[in-house]
Amino acid sequence: MLETRDLHKSYESGEARVDALRGITLKILPGEIVAVTGPSGCGKSTLLHILGALDTPTSGQAYLEGHPLHSLNDDKLTALRRLKIGFVFQFFHLLPTLTVEENVLLPLLLSGRVNASARHRANDLLKSVQLADRSHHRPHQLSGGQLQRAALARALIHQPSILLADEPTGNLDSASSTMVIDLITQLARKEKTTVVLVTHSEEIARTADRRVALVDGRIHS
Amino acid sequence: MNWLTTLRVFLSHGTRDFFRHKTLSLLNLLALAVGVAAIVAIQTVNETALRSFRASLDLVAGRPDFTIEGQGFRLPEKLIPLLRNDPAVREVTPTLSLVASLPNHPGEFLHLIGVDPFSNSELVTYRLEDALRSPTDAIAFVSEPNTIALTRSLANRLHLQPGDSIRAVSAGHQANLRVRFLLEPSPDLLGADDHLAIADIATVQSAFGLFGQVDRIEALLQPDASGKIATARSSLLERLKPHLPAHARAGSPERRGQEVEKMLGAFQLNLTALSLIALVVGMFLVTNTVAANVVRRRSEIGLLRSLGLTQNSVVFILVAESLLLGFLGSAIGIILGLQVARTLLQSVASTVTSHYVLLSMQEIVVNPWSLLAAGLAGLLAASLAAWWPARQASLVSPVDALLPGNSADRASSPQSHFLRASLLCFFLTLLFSATALYARIPRTGFLAALSILLAAAFLAPALARLLSLVPSLPFSFTILARSTFSRGLHRHGLAAAALSVAVAMAIGVTIMVHSFRATVDQWIGESIKADLFIAPSTNLIAGALEPLDPEAETLALATPGVRAVGTYREVRLFLDGTPAKLAACRLEILRVYNPLTFLSTLPGDPYELCQKGDYAIISENFARRRRLKAGDTVSLPTPTGTHLLQVAAIFRDYTSESGLLLLDRSAYRRLTQDQGLTSLAIHLEPGVSPQTVGDSLREQLRPRGEFLVYSQAGLRNEALRIFDRSFAVTALLRTLAIAVAALGVTLSLTALGIERTREIGILRATGASRGQILRTIMTESAYLGTTGILLGLVTGFAVALILMQVINRAFFGWTIDWYTPYPSLVGIVIGMMVACLLASLPPAWHASRLSPAEALRSE
Amino acid sequence: MKKLLPILLFFLATSGLHAADPWARAMKPWSWSFPRDHGAHPEFKTEWWYLTGNLDDENGNPYGYELTFFRHGLQPVATQPDSAWSIRDISFAHLAITDVRSRRFLFSEKLSRGALGEVEISQKDMQVRIADWTLQRKTDSTLTMSASDPTTGIGLDLSATPLKPLTFQGEKGLSRKSATPGNASHYYSFTRLQTTGQLELGGKKIPVKGLSWFDHEFSTSALGEDQEGWDWFCLQFDSGDELMLYRMRNPGNRTDPASSGTWIPARGPSLPLKSSDFTITPIDEWKTASGATYPSGWKISIPSLDFTGEVQPLLLDQELQLKRTAKIRYWEGACRFTGNRSGKAISGRGYTELTGYASPIGQGMKE
């Protein structure tokens, strides 16, 4: 499903060179829920961005369902993101100018697939994240937990094969955290979506099928 | 936290921010610079014009305490002993000036001024002694016939050396003037017309047959017992009054300057108002950017606030940043403005000459004070523009500011406020129009124009909202663009408003100029019937000032193929303190060959009335400005006394901005004793070629000086050329407005692009392609453009209406028929739309190229 | 300082004379005829009517005055004759008043091209007017003069009656200025005029009376090529005698042999004096603010008349600094005299004129 081989990523930051990933080799099976843990700055988010086709590695290979993420151009990566990947971010990242429903439908809108059944699915999803009554609200009218649940609905609307979550509870109180994590696992299992969850919370990591610990850009075993 | 610390924060943050967003800063800079440049250019040209006029006046007449001037006609020199013998008078000196053409130097002329060096030493500011090096020279100046002093620059241009002779022609008199002296460039000559030539008054009288005549008499007075000149002046005036001819105007010389200023005032106000609008548009843009800036830097501001920066300090920092921008922008604007002024100089000089007074300007006169004022206006605009958004930013609590997400998205703009403001501005428009038209405060007409522009600006958010109610095309990017546009009005509102103001300006001015030109063209077609026209060439370059050689009429009448010769005489004068033109025609020719379009007449034939008695025909704008109708009387001061003329008819005329009073030639000659002619209109026998007769006349006239012989089409082209030249500055300002508006769109979208980097990251993460980002942003720009242009288009018609029906009526009183220049309007609309799309291209491209991961990381 | 056209002239202008000189010259004694010769002689280039005098007010405070009218021909025939502004002559006048007690010296000038009746100078009698400054001879031979300048606040309104018949200077009125024939003027004087009237100073009118001296002189070329200027004295003694002396200065402050003078006794014919008959020796000098140096105080001795004495200015600064008539400076001031004649004390008052010390003199006066 997801596979990386000796993945390296470094950034030029002025004079200095930051090596965010230093040889990650990883294999994630379909339907698996994997928690990536590690201290701040260990490269978790960078790994996630590469797995999510948002960024390309400096060297090494990454495959999503056999697609070589490390060698595809921007258009191909965009197409992959559009069809196969869902994202949940720490800061929710809903578009402030769209309503909740529009935000949820955004991935389908971008691929030109908004129709009655899409709307239906969006409603179902919003129901399942308990936001049915909020679908026409704007993001600034929602609380953090609600925002993240909406973001989850958006991440799943196009039935991606993989859901990438970057510290999804990082900005939530514990009640909301629990709810969001429960929803992620619950919906992922239901839709058979592979999940990669970046977190620094032990508690959340425990809910995963497997955990990968990163330290200084390497997998700590 | 003290101010010093605030300043340090400013220096470290503000300036860094400036350099971090170079494009944005540069665009801002440019917007302000263009606004300031417009002001500087207009002010400089205005000042150069006034300065040049005054310098030429002062140079020969200095700053006397008392002046007598002939209105339209010269004064008898016999008035001088009267003044000389008055106990209040310390010194009296005359001047006698004329414009002479130089047949050997086509296109050049002399503004020859006769002076009395014996009596003007306390009055003049020029230094002949620089030119006159020996007593022999001094004696030669006053005693050798035809001796003149020329400015060095003109002498160089004409390749004349001291000792050379130059043939000069004026009103049929020819003289071989001998250049004996050169006036060196000196501070006194700065700004003065370099066509100026000085000669002894006896020389000018003798060379051009002007015996017994002077133009102006200047006097220095003896202060009265209390040391005041004013009382001495008024008592002198009392004593002189019974002896002055009716057309003499006596009094303080300041009045003369004021009148010139008044005369040029409408013209200058016009330009100044337009330049101010350019600055206002610039201001909109700066507000827009600062507002965007504030949104973008919310967390930075929040951080500074949480670290203890006070609200006032936040305002200070943001305003100071804007001021820094304003400072640079003003500096660039000043340089730019001076450059623009240089290019405008000639067209303004020609315009003023053809409408008001002889004016020739070679180099701009830079007044440091007005540069300072324009710079301050730029700074003021920058700080005013920054103040409101800065205030908003300072009001955000530090906690909110530090929260992620965009709080600006939460704040919904108070739509109803804007609508109310818009309504208020609309009422102000009506009010100011009314005061301009009915309360006779013409200047408020410009306030009406400004109000309608503001009304439109306040309407921009509402219109944008309305526009977003229209269902969008079913493309992802249009749907996205529509929702981001309609819900991002806090970001687009100002840009749309600025755009609408600029478009309204451009459209309003375009309609007005087009209508005016079409009206004039139409009128020329209807009212100019003669086949050929003859005028002295100086009248083209120096305005209709100098009379034609009287022989020309005889020559024309004797030319085979000529059926009738109409004559035209025109003088400029002040009637009741406002400028006007007095003209005389052979009405018996006019009525047959070239009947006037009367708007109203007395019972009976107005031509006959004028030929028989003291009747006049007045132009529409003359009637309107002085509230006259047929049957009313006009009092006309002439050298033979003040005459009451009854208005026989009112006719349409576009030849004079100040209004025309037309007499029959016989009446004119009887009343004024002036035998001069300004131009001839020649009607040919049917079938005779104007070309042939024109060539023949040209040939016959050649030895008599420099003449212009126009065909009908030639005259029409000349008239339209003068018209176009008069509006050259207006056209330039229109272009400026469009440029500023396009700049504004780029600015707005660039700011938006920076502000929305993260959103773009989200879109990209959610599967938006580069093309989708590009298209979305360009569609947003199209929305913005549509709002601004639509609003501007409608408002533009309103502005045109105000320009034509309020400002024109209040200042000039012409009738301008409405002609809608559809192709130009379509051109402007399409051009602006294209400009908006092109303007959006760089920021859209930039956004689409952002790396999604990096964009997401941005906060 | 106002700018001015440096018209000329009187002292500055070159006349550019050539062989075919259109101007008359003072070659031989004039055949005098009065009152006609009190009037103008336009065939000569330069002409002046010169009045100076020492007056006292009711309290015995001494004053001096100078009022001079000049005519200077620019061209013998006016060009551009149809214009009222055409010029043949220019006319100017100088007025100066010395207030000895308050140590004030004030002056004023007029300059005119004579257009539109601004100048009238009769050729029949002494009727001279430039603007409102006038000098007229009444039928009873009294000279009346009037001039005022509100700007400087000075003026005078005087009538002067000759107490003696007129005196011809030089040889029957032909007064030579250098050895070259023609460098001479026609020159006569009223050496003692009883004067009454009023002076105006600072707007205040002061009744005065005293004695005046009058010169009328016309010439075309009165100075030699290299002459630098002159020192001129007129003295009126309490004894009823008068003395006129002038010293033409050649380069190196040498006295030109053509210098001369006239002794006018209380009664009887006047006595011409040659340069060898008298000596004038400066005693002191006075420096102007602008740096020029004038002699100040003179020892005069005329051995043939057994006459010696000293002339002392009543005020050091009596320099006219004229602006309008070109930038001309000369010293013209009231003086007093004390000395001896034939062993008896003699005293009097008079005027001294010093030219060519502060501004170059002269080409109009030279050939």
Give a brief description.
The complex is a heterotrimer of chains A (221), B (859) and C (367). By secondary structure, chain A is α/β, with parallel strands linked by helices.
Description:
The complex is a heterotrimer of chains A (221), B (859) and C (367). Chain A contains 7 helices and 10 strands. With 221 residues, chain A is an alpha/beta fold. Chain A has one domain (2-220): 3-Layer(aba) Sandwich (Rossmann fold). The two termini of chain A are 21 Å apart. Chain B folds into 4 domains: 14-65 and 256-410, no CATH class; 72-251, no CATH class; 458-529 and 720-859, no CATH class; 550-704, no CATH class. Chain B contains 31 helices and 21 strands. Mean pLDDT of chain B is 81; it is low at 405-412. Chain C has 367 residues and is mainly beta. Chain C has one domain: AttH-like fold (Beta Barrel), CATH 2.40.370. Chain C contains no helices and 24 strands. In chain C, strands 1, 2, 3, 4, 5, 6, 7, 8, 9, 10, 11, 12 and 13 form a 13-stranded antiparallel beta sheet that branches. In chain C, strand 19 (279-287) and strand 20 form a beta hairpin. The interface between A and B is medium-sized, with 35 and 33 residues.
